[in-house]
Amino acid sequence: MSGLEQERSDLRLADRHIVEGESRIAQQEALVGRLESEGFPAPEGERLLQTLRETLQLWRQHRTQILMRIGYLEAERLHASTARAHPKTPPPLHRG
């Protein structure tokens, strides 16, 4: 697997983690809200919710890094293919 293919695979995984993380956060928010509405304080639930939010932020940052790496690798590939398609020829020698 090339570096670009690996990065695209990593991007799909990062996207899945983000979607799953958002779902977990929504579930935890609902659970904490239900507990608190019934008069039960939920400090552990709140701490878990904060940890989930921080983790989601890290996953989003990682996704951004993957996208930057994909952009770099795509540009590198384009540059390499352009260089092969249009090799530079040296200027003619000027004999005077």
Any idea what the shape is?
rod-shaped
Sequence of secondary-structure elements: HH
The portion of residues assigned to helices is over 70%
Provide a count of the helices: 2
For the structure shown, list the relevant keywords.
mainly alpha, 2 helices, 81% helix, rod-shaped
Characterise the protein shown here.
With 96 residues, this protein is an all-alpha fold. It has one domain. Helix content is 81%, strand content 0%. The chain has two helices and no strands. The chain has helices spanning 3-37, 43-85. Helix 1 (3-37) packs antiparallel against helix 2. It starts with a helix and ends in an 11-residue tail after the last helix. The model has no long low-confidence stretch (mean pLDDT 91).
